[in-house]
Design goal:
Elements: E1 2-4, E2 7-8, H1 10-35, H2 39-67, E3 68-69, E4 75-76, H3 78-99, H4 106-129, E5 131-132, E6 136-140, H5 142-165, H6 174-197, E7 198-202, H7 216-249, H8 259-268, E8 276-283, H9 286-293, H10 295-309, E9 317-323, E10 326-332, H11 336-350, E11 354-356, E12 359-361, E13 365-372, H12 379-395, E14 401-403, H13 406-425, E15 431-440, E16 445-457, E17 461-463, H14 465-475, H15 478-496, E18 505-509, H16 512-517, H17 520-531, E19 538-543, H18 544-549, H19 551-563, E20 567-573, E21 590-593, H20 595-599, H21 604-619, E22 623-627, H22 632-641, E23 645-647, E24 655-656, H23 657-675
Helix pairs in contact: 1-2, 1-5, 1-6, 1-7, 2-3, 2-4, 2-6, 2-7, 3-4, 4-5, 5-6, 9-10, 13-14, 15-17
């Protein structure tokens, strides 16, 4: 036996190095998909990455063996060669599975690197074992063999470290190519160290030849097959990023990032952020524009608002569209003063005029602000906090921002509890009607009562309607509550009129939700029939907002009720968007002057408005009722202005039915004594 001395084809060695770099770069790109996928998709990308990495390493190894010539013709055992391929792919897969986790550690990287290194060593020396020649045997230098194994493990650990470092990088760059070059160099170093460990021994000198032709078919076949795999992989990644990812993570209307992108942003960008601030923006009165001008104009408005918000996108901030007219801006590393300044600038941008399809529109926005870590670190809680603050900004008048605080959290918790308890309040008899008299200043006697709903909560006591009515409006429970108020008010009216020489009316407030339900006529007929109350003793009060919502529909629902003899009143007249041009079209009998004018009755301007309303009502043959009368001076002013029917604390606060009976009995006794 004598030793064979081999040599390398430099061009083929260079090709093996290039293949190694390209395989490493492809794997670095695929790692991004592993980190940003979940479930079966993540497993699929992990398998693809392992296949590319493993087959790339094996191809480099195989081409490196082809580059080596020992002067004796060699063949390859196909089954053993396939085993070496499978070893490289499986080692890559399990190394990725073990080490490419969201929360990694050095120990996990070391274990993963050891797994991959062991797989590479297995692949290399199994591939060496597949080389066959009847006259050649192979022995190994133990020191160099151990060195090649160490290089394989260290190279694998370095590769996994780089994979972990670039797991959030989707774009090509010098650093990524440098990392791929380092990985390629390490893999080649392991291979050629392993080749140096091998000694080839020949027992027949006659089979030795000075040169042997390179098997170009095998070389080119393996090379082009591997390159084809990489090209297809790059194409799939490019398609996924440019088409599928854009569809999945971008809002189709505005091009902004969507809710899916928001979840990814929290995981990738904010996981280790020391501080960040959320700005939850909602456009004010957007529904009105959608309903009046159409959804096409609404879409254009959203697009224009999104375009203005794009200016806030930078390296530290990103804007998302959550849906409808809701947007979210996240800014990293800003303090409280900077946050309020940004919110003010956003509001300024939003309220500039919009020129859309010949329409000049003016809208405003409301912003809720929450910050981490001041208001927590949990994503859901921060979003809820910003959303809650935004609604508080709307409740305070819109076109402003509100910074979340713990008191707001208590209010939100109470609101949620009231909403939950409201579901059972009707069945448990917790609602009760209070009644406030409408006073005739000429007869010095009430003409009727307005039914005002109160909630006797078992834990919180009497809850103001200002607190629970908005909740009932949002949840839709206001419809069933109005039905109950109407039925109870009709029964009570029948009872108190049993002792009255002149009938006293009862009035019930209606919500826009009742009109939307299309059940108003059925509700009224049922209440009148069950109570046997004459229709002319029932008065229904609606606000200007209801009228402005849909004049035609409101008129169509009120006209049959008016024909039955039911009185229709406009409540809080002068406080909203008064439709003066439609007053003669709506079947009103009474205008109720909003209490705001009485609260500011010392103002000459407010007195002038009151006089104008009274004159207008007189010319339209409408009765006038002034609300909020609390002083004798206000009473005298109204009487002098020609208003005779009034309502307010000056005459009586709202009272439950049992107190009303006592109040009426005392009033009648005083009235009789006055006559006598």
């Amino acid at each position: 036996m004598f030793a064979l001395t081999g040599d390398y084809n430099g061009w083929i060695v260079a090709l093996s190095f290039i293949i190694s770099i390209l395989a490493s770069y492809s794997s670095l790109n695929l790692v991004y998909k592993i980190s940003h996928s979940r479930g079966k998709a993540q497993q699929g990308w992990m398998a693809a990455s392992a296949f590319v990495m493993g087959s790339g390493i094996w191809t480099m190894h195989f081409i490196g063996m082809i580059a080596f010539h020992v002067g004796v013709p060699m063949t390859y055992n196909i089954p053993i060669t396939l085993i070496s391929i499978v070893a490289a792919i499986l080692a890559s897969y399990f190394a990725f599975l073990f080490s490419l986790t969201k929360k990694n550690s050095r120990s996990r990287l070391a274990i993963g690197g050891t797994i991959m290194g062991a797989g590479i060593v297995t692949m290399h020396y199994t591939g060496m074992a597949s080389m066959q020649s009847p006259t050649v045997s192979i022995t190994y230098n133990n020191v160099l063999w151990a060195l090649s194994a160490i290089i394989a493990v260290l190279a694998s650990c370095a590769a996994l470290y780089l994979f972990h470092k670039f797991r959030n990088s989707a774009r090509a760059g010098l650093s990524k190519w440098s990392a791929a070059g380092l990985m390629g160099f390490a893999v080649c170093g392991m291979h050629y160290t392993g080749m140096a460990a091998a000694s080839f021994w020949c027992g027949n000198p006659e089979v030795v030849v000075q040169s042997a032709p390179v098997n170009l078919f095998l070389l080119l076949g393996v090379t082009f097959t591997t390159l084809a795999i990489m090209i297809v992989t790059w194409g799939a990644i490019h398609f996924d990023r440019t088409v599928l990812e854009r569809m999945a993570y971008s809002d189709p209307l505005t091009g902004l990032s969507n809710r899916h992108a928001l979840s990814r942003y929290f995981e990738d960008e904010l996981e280790n952020a020391s501080s960040f601030t959320l700005f939850f923006l909602d456009l004010d009165r957007f529904k009105v524009i959608n309903d009046t001008l159409g959804h096409d104009i609404g879409d254009l408005l959203v697009q224009e608002a999104a375009s203005r918000l794009q200016t806030f996108n930078d390296q530290q901030s990103e804007i998302f569209r959550l849906g409808g007219d809701e947007f979210l801006l996240i800014s990293k590393g800003i303090n409280a003063a900077e946050a309020t300044h940004i919110a003010s600038v956003i509001l300024e941008h939003i309220r500039k005029p919009y020129y859309l399809e010949g329409n000049e529109l003016y809208i405003t926005g409301s912003i809720g602000i929450s910050s981490s870590p001041e208001h927590g670190t949990d994503r859901s809680k921060l979003l809820i906090a910003a959303d809650t603050a935004m609604y508080q900004a709307k409740r305070q008048g819109k076109n402003q921002y509100f910074v979340y605080n713990m008191e707001l959290d208590k209010m939100a918790s109470r609101r949620m509890e009231l909403e939950k308890d409201m579901q059972l309040a009707l069945t448990k008899g917790q609602f009760v009607n209070y009644y406030q008299p409408k006073w005739n200043a000429d007869t010095n006697y009430p003409t009727g009562f307005e039914a005002l709903l109160r909630w006797k909560h078992p834990a919180y006591g009497i809850i103001s309607p200002d607190e629970f009515i908005p909740i009932a409006e949002e949840t839709g429970m206001i419809v069933s509550m109005t039905r109950w108020v109407l039925e109870q008010a009709c029964r009570d009216c029948v009872q108190w009129n049993k002792h009255e020489p002149e009938p006293l009316t009862v009035s019930v407030n209606l919500s826009v939700k009742v009109f939307d339900s299309k059940n108003l006529m059925d509700m009224v007929l049922f209440a009148l029939e069950r109570s046997s109350l004459p229709a002319e003793l029932l008065e229904l009060e609606i606000t200007e907002t209801i009228v402005m919502n849909n004049v035609t529909d409101v008129v169509n629902q009120l006209k049959p009720l008016q024909d039955m003899g039911i009185t229709i009143s406009m409540d809080d007249f002068g406080s909203g968007y008064s439709s003066l041009g439609s007053l003669d079209l709506i079947p009103f009998h009474t205008l109720k002057i909003d209490k705001l004018f009485m609260q500011q009755s010392h103002s000459p301007a407010k007195r002038a408005v009151v006089n104008t309303i009274i004159t207008l009502a007189s010319q339209l043959n409408l009765q006038v009722v002034a609300e909020g009368v609390e002083t004798e001076q206000q009473l005298d002013f109204l009487k002098a202005s020609g208003c005779q029917v009034m309502q307010g604390f000056y005459f009586s606060k709202p009272m439950p039915r049992d107190q009303l009976d006592e109040w009426m009995a005392a009033l009648n006794r005083a009235h009789i004594q006055g006559i006598s």
